[in-house]
TrEMBL record:
<protein>
    <recommendedName>
        <fullName>Citrate lyase alpha chain</fullName>
        <ecNumber>2.8.3.10</ecNumber>
        <ecNumber>4.1.3.6</ecNumber>
    </recommendedName>
</protein>
<dbReference type="GO" id="GO:0006084">
    <property type="term" value="P:acetyl-CoA metabolic process"/>
</dbReference>
<keyword id="KW-0963">Cytoplasm</keyword>
<dbReference type="InterPro" id="IPR006472">
    <property type="entry name" value="Citrate_lyase_asu"/>
</dbReference>
<dbReference type="GO" id="GO:0005737">
    <property type="term" value="C:cytoplasm"/>
</dbReference>
<dbReference type="Pfam" id="PF04223">
    <property type="entry name" value="CitF"/>
</dbReference>
<dbReference type="GO" id="GO:0008815">
    <property type="term" value="F:citrate (pro-3S)-lyase activity"/>
</dbReference>
<dbReference type="GO" id="GO:0008814">
    <property type="term" value="F:citrate CoA-transferase activity"/>
</dbReference>
<dbReference type="InterPro" id="IPR037171">
    <property type="entry name" value="NagB/RpiA_transferase-like"/>
</dbReference>
<dbReference type="GO" id="GO:0009346">
    <property type="term" value="C:ATP-independent citrate lyase complex"/>
</dbReference>
<keyword id="KW-0808">Transferase</keyword>
<keyword id="KW-0456">Lyase</keyword>
Length: 518
């Protein structure tokens, strides 16, 4: 029987898992001391005149020495328009290679085509930030992998790669544009996706890096997101991704009156905090409510002639409008969320591409997330200790992504969660969340349509709200009000089998995901 210990948020964590080794339980947002980083790319020798071009993906994989048991990484800048993961893993299966761990920055519903490769043993391990769709349901209800899925935040993933916790044998980079020597950017070509921020750590630290492009341009590519010095082979293949799949309803401002009310209350809380001053910094999630907060904030900035220093994260067209209007000096972009953002990063020098490590890695010499003043976050569930779940539904099934949630919550001066009190017949405020992704110590405020609750640890913030005439409620009151409408939520039926480990951004384990009995 594996020994279990309680971590800092009261979750029972195994101290050891076969095939993975010893695990370190979460101790607190800044309690874990980082080990040495391993940033140096693998040494290689390239002779003048030597070509990096290969005819096929198979040839590139063979040249990299693909073998059973290796780890292959991918990035998700095409989101649900990505074709490359399926394309490459089909080739890996055709080559007869098995026992592969894949390390994509995220998996979308389009990747359900991987399910047969999981069932057949081609894929036996997954390390990612999130999983959606049918592949998420199958992995949640069937214990198919040799080792549990590792869920990492957008800052935790590059930390793991750069520290050597994740050893990538072959990084597969989907390149909207590349030259024959491996210089890559995401802003040219018919399938431009914008920033390639998630792929940079992979290319830097992988043993081999393969660029797959459907738009080969003359040498040298300009601009360059990933340079030739990190690339071993270049392949031209049709249709690596569809940028239309980047766009989703989640990146548009809500028209729902209740969600607009929540956004207006959240904006009142942000203004009452006193943080909206000249040169303040801001990030909002991609949900419609979060973007509505940006809408109300934009109005205040216009009326009071306030200019922010930067907005960061995944960038959308609404933030582009604020940049072009002069409301922010700079956008710092790890991933473009729509076509307008892609066009902006192509033409506007004040719209900066950044790597995921630069964005949110807690163990480098200073990430952007730690420079944030205000962060607006979403939640699947939030409990009375202010712990937040964004990875599983209340039924225990994986349905979302850790993303930059815990990174920005830890780094910002004000981490504010916006959520309705209930969705359908399910309360959002609960006694205990199904899965902890972000610890309550990093969350400052919850805003619902029924009121604003402040984390008891932030007495300073509660006093400031009172001074500015903003009424607050206790989070227990919100929970009780929700349950009067929905009743007490039933907990998912799960087995003792651990099918997933949720890493905090520092590499410690903040929670486990158990196999769900449907």
């Amino acid at each position: 029987m594996t020994k279990m210990v309680l971590n800092a948020v009261g979750r029972a964590i195994p101290t050891h898992i076969k095939g993975m080794g010893d695990l370190t339980p979460f101790k607190g947002a800044f309690a874990h001391t980082p080990g040495p980083m391993n940033m140096t790319p693998r040494a290689a020798w390239h002779k003048p005149g030597q070509s990096k071009m290969t005819e096929t993906i198979r040839q590139a994989l063979e040249n990299c020495g693909l073998a059973d048991g290796m780890t292959l990484s991918f990035h998700h800048h095409f989101r649900n328009g990505d074709h490359l993961v399926n394309m490459v893993m089909d080739e890996v299966a055709a080559m007869g290679v098995r026992d592969i761990t894949i390390a994509p920055s995220s998996l979308q519903s389009i990747h359900e085509k991987l399910i047969p490769h999981i069932r057949s043993g081609v894929i036996t391990g997954i390390q990612t930030s999130g999983i959606r769709g049918e592949i998420a349901r199958v992995l949640s209800t069937e214990n198919l992998l040799k080792t549990p899925i590792i869920i990492r935040s957008h800052g935790g993933r590059p930390r793991a790669i750069e520290s050597g916790d994740t050893k990538i044998d072959i990084a597969i980079i989907g390149a909207p544009a590349a030259d024959a020597f491996g210089n890559v950017n995401g802003v040219e070509g018919p399938n431009a996706c914008g920033s390639l921020g998630y792929a940079i750590a992979d290319a830097t630290c992988a043993t081999h890096t393969v660029v797959v492009t459907d738009y080969l341009i003359p040498y040298p590519a300009c601009p360059v997101s990933i340079p030739q010095t990190l690339v071993d082979y270049v392949v031209v293949a049709e249709g690596i991704g569809d940028p239309q799949g980047i766009v989703s309803g989640a990146t548009r401002i809500t028209r729902n009156p209740m969600e607009l009310l929540i956004a207006e209350k959240a904006n009142e809380a942000i203004l009452a905090s006193g943080l909206v001053q000249q040169d303040f910094s801001f990030q909002a999630g991609t949900g419609g409510s979060s973007l509505a907060v940006a809408h109300f904030l934009r109005q205040h900035m216009r009326e009071n002639n306030i200019k922010g220093s930067f907005a960061s994260g995944g960038i959308n067209g609404y933030l582009v409008d604020m940049l072009e209007e002069g409301l922010f000096r700079t956008l710092m972009d790890v991933q473009c969320f729509d076509l307008k953002a892609i066009e902006s990063i192509r033409k506007n020098p004040n719209h900066m591409e950044m790597s995921a490590s630069y964005y949110a890695n807690p163990h480098n010499k200073g990430c952007v997330a730690h420079q944030l003043d205000v962060m607006v976050l979403s939640a699947t569930e939030i409990d009375v200790q202010f712990n937040v779940n964004v990875i599983t539904g209340s039924n225990g099934i994986i349905m979302g992504a850790s993303g930059g949630h815990c990174d920005t919550a830890a780094g910002s001066k004000l981490a504010i969660v916006v959520a309705p009190l209930f969705r359908g017949r399910l309360p959002i405020v609960v006694d205990q969340v199904t899965t902890v992704v972000t610890p309550g110590e990093s969350i400052d405020v919850l805003v619902t349509e029924y009121g604003v609750a402040v984390n008891p640890a932030r007495t300073d913030l509660k006093d400031r709200f009172r001074e500015n005439g903003l009424k607050t409620v206790e989070i227990h009151e919100l929970k009780e009000r929700a349950e009067k409408v929905t009743g007490k939520p039933t907990k998912p039926v799960v087995t003792d089998e651990v099918i997933g480990l949720v890493e905090y951004r520092d590499g410690t384990i903040i929670d486990t995901i158990k196999k769900v009995v449907e």
